[in-house]
């Protein structure tokens, strides 16, 4: 299934999106806005069995096209590998994961904001998701002013953020418990940006558990965000 929203900024707390089931061909056409649909689309791969973590094996031959180097996964136990596809402009809400993970940008670009765990108390976190949603990624000054009026403690912590834009082929290590949010961007290459493939962002997340801490993770938590 895919998240579908009329708004660019997804918010887990307010659930400003719906889940829709559709063929992958239809999803890609909509995510690229080839059919004039102005809504925002977001897909994350899931295992065929709901109680199992995602692997790229569920996507058939695509599994053969991606692997992290062995040298950087030593000492870890693999938890899941998730393919993500998003319409350009879609913003994912501020949250944290309980596993370390690598975020790998395959197509398009991805803006990523990281905030250390020491600041979690400033962001009104419920479960593992912030009540700010993705609103802090907004570029409209008036919208940000309203946000900081609503969440005054969050503003100073947000100013101390780490921010990066991943290009195609880049990978970013996101430590466990670090708050992060993302924005899908079109390809920075002018020709690619005009193509249908350049109008969405494709990435792969690899979630990893430290072998010494594996017993601390809830085995029923397929998304690695439950303490």
Largest sheet: 7 strands, antiparallel
Oligomer: single chain
Distance between the termini: 25 Å
Tally the helices: 4
Overall 3D form:
globular
Work out the count of structural domains. 1
Q: How does the helix and strand content classify structurally?
A: alpha+beta
Give an overview of the whole structure.
The structure is a single chain. This protein has a single domain (2-216), classed as Sandwich (Jelly Rolls). The chain has helices spanning 24-31, 141-150, 152-159, 190-194; strands at 2-5, 18-20, 40-44, 76-87, 91-95, 100-107, 109-115, 125-126, 129-130, 162-166, 171-174, 179-185, 200-210. With 227 residues, the protein is of the alpha+beta class. The protein has a seven-stranded antiparallel β-sheet, with helices on one face. Strands 5-12-7-10 form a four-stranded antiparallel β-sheet, with no helix packed on it.
List the helices and strands and how they pair.
Blueprint (H helix, E strand, L loop, with lengths): L1 E4 L12 E3 L3 H8 L8 E5 L31 E12 L3 E5 L4 E8 L1 E7 L9 E2 L2 E2 L10 H10 L1 H8 L2 E5 L4 E4 L4 E7 L4 H5 L5 E11 L17
Antiparallel strand pairs: 1-2, 1-3, 3-4, 4-13, 5-12, 6-11, 6-13, 7-10, 7-12, 8-9
Helix pairs in contact: 2-3
């Amino acid at each position: 299934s895919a998240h579908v929203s009329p708004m660019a900024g997804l918010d887990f707390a307010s659930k400003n999106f719906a889940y829709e089931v559709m063929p992958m061909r239809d999803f890609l056409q909509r995510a690229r806005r080839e059919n004039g649909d102005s809504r925002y689309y977001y897909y994350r791969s899931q295992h065929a069995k709901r109680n199992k973590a995602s692997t790229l094996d569920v996507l058939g031959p695509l599994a053969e096209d991606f692997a992290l180097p062995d040298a950087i996964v030593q000492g870890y136990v693999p938890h899941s590998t998730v393919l993500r596809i998003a319409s350009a402009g879609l913003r994912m809400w501020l949250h944290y994961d309980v596993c370390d993970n690598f975020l790998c940008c395959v197509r398009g670009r991805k803006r990523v904001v990281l905030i250390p765990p020491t600041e979690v108390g400033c962001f009104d976190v419920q479960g593992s998701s912030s009540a700010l949603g993705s609103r802090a990624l907004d570029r409209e000054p008036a919208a940000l002013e309203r946000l900081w009026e609503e969440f005054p403690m969050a503003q100073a912590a947000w100013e101390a953020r780490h921010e990066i834009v991943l290009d195609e082929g880049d990978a970013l290590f996101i430590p466990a418990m670090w708050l992060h949010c993302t924005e899908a961007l079109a390809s920075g290459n002018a020709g690619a940006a005009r193509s249908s493939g350049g109008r969405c962002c494709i990435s792969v997340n690899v979630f990893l558990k430290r072998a010494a801490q594996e017993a601390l993770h809830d085995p029923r938590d397929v998304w690695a965000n439950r303490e």
